[in-house]
Amino acid sequence: MSDPNQPSEEPGKIHIDSDWKEQVRAEKEKLAQPSAPEELPTEPTSEPPPADNSGESAHGYEDPPLPPASLMTLVSMLATESLMALGQFRDPATGQPMQQRLNTARHLIDTLDVLQEKTKGNLQVEEAKMLEDTTHQLRMVYVELNKP
Length: 148
Known about the structure:
Number of helices: 4
Largest sheet: none
Distance between the termini: 78 Å
Strand content: under 5%
């Protein structure tokens, strides 16, 4: 019988130290206890910070609640990204129109086309109308900007 604390002689076999679970438990307990900033671990952990519903993230920046996930939200997000790529928004830092990225805009509009095709017959009337109207309007802006 082999000693579990000795490395395996078999190639490709993973050796796990016998007290790794105890080390993980001790680290979790240490992290769970309130400590001064200088006592925090310097290496990143794989666990996300605890959820906070106050609207502010653990890093101090605003993290407002988001609307429920839905097809309408997805279409709005893709449309907004498309409009940004089409240069239809101003850069908040400079006030200048954002640089046009027509290849990106085309890709996002094509993505909306794929979504429309793949969901045909499975949408509520208002969802289908929003998707069709949004895609059409974005195509018109793209064509206008891409004129020779």
